[in-house]
């Protein structure tokens, strides 16, 4: 079974390693790719918010189980998922790839002090990354305008740490525009990364 349905959200039935292989191949091909790492809160929110559910069902290319609660629910439904695949682990791994390859990375989200600390850490520990954008997540413009700003920088990777559903709404615009990048919502990851 390719997908495992947990309360209307279709999780990809893949291991961390299988996701890695597919993401690398899509990066190499410059394919527009929108990844959602969904925890139980996201699944519950999607069940109460048709617009959000639609984004997960129609715009996301991959949905990973970000949380043991999802893995347990899948097992209870007798359609087990192989393992937990968190946004933070994928973020760290993709940043490593970006550093090795000198990729163009756009980071958006978290408080101004946090994004500044993230920027400093990237400059120090991922110095080969081409950081084409780093902005906090408390902008007041429409998401369409923000999406346009991101698109102009032609990133290979976009990480949005705005919390759900905002991060997925932003990335779904970029995905609908077929922006040729790998993009992922990473929740509170910048807070962890900067700490
Ligand atoms: N955030 C943001 N803009 C907002 C609301 C939240 O950038 O308008 C950031 C917040 O500073 C934090 C992250 O989004 O860094 C959300 O973290 P949380 O752990 O609440 O998200 P979850 O992983 O639960 O979606």
UniProtKB/TrEMBL annotation:
It catalyses: UDP-N-acetyl-alpha-D-mannosamine + N-acetyl-alpha-D-glucosaminyl-di-trans,octa-cis-undecaprenyl diphosphate = N-acetyl-beta-D-mannosaminyl-(1->4)-N-acetyl-alpha-D-glucosaminyl di-trans,octa-cis-undecaprenyl diphosphate + UDP + H(+). GO terms for biological process: cell wall organization; teichoic acid biosynthetic process. Pathway: Cell wall biogenesis; teichoic acid biosynthesis. Keywords: Cell wall biogenesis/degradation, Glycosyltransferase, Teichoic acid biosynthesis, Transferase. Its EC number is 2.4.1.187. GO terms for molecular function: N-acetylglucosaminyldiphosphoundecaprenol N-acetyl-beta-D-mannosaminyltransferase activity. The keyword Cell wall biogenesis/degradation applies. The keyword RNA-binding does not apply. Catalyzes the conversion of GlcNAc-PP-undecaprenol into ManNAc-GlcNAc-PP-undecaprenol, the first committed lipid intermediate in the de novo synthesis of teichoic acid. Belongs to the glycosyltransferase 26 family. TagA/TarA subfamily. This is N-acetylglucosaminyldiphosphoundecaprenol N-acetyl-beta-D-mannosaminyltransferase. The lineage of its organism: Bacteria, Bacillati, Bacillota, Bacilli, Lactobacillales. The chain holds residues 1 to 195 of 243 of the full protein.
């Amino acid at each position: 079974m390719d997908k495992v349905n947990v309360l209307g959200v279709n999780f990809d039935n893949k291991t961390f390693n299988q996701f890695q292989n597919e993401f690398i191949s899509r990066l190499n091909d410059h394919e527009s790719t929108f990844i959602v790492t969904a925890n139980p809160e996201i699944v519950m929110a999607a069940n109460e918010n048709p617009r959000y559910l639609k984004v997960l069902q129609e715009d996301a290319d991959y949905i990973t189980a970000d949380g043991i609660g999802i893995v347990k629910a899948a097992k209870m439904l007798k359609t087990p998922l192989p393992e937990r695949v968190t946004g933070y682990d994928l973020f760290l791994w993709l940043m490593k790839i970006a550093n090795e390859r000198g990729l163009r990375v756009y980071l958006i989200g978290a408080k101004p002090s946090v994004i500044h600390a993230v920027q400093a850490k990237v400059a120090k520990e991922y110095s080969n990354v081409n950081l084409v954008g780093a902005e906090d997540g408390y902008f007041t413009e429409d998401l369409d305008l923000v999406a346009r700003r991101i698109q102009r920088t032609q990133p290979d990777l976009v990480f949005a740490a705005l919390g759900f559903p905002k991060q997925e709404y932003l990335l779904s615009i970029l995905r609908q525009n077929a922006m040729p990048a790998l993009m992922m919502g990473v929740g509170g990851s910048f807070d962890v990364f900067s700490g």
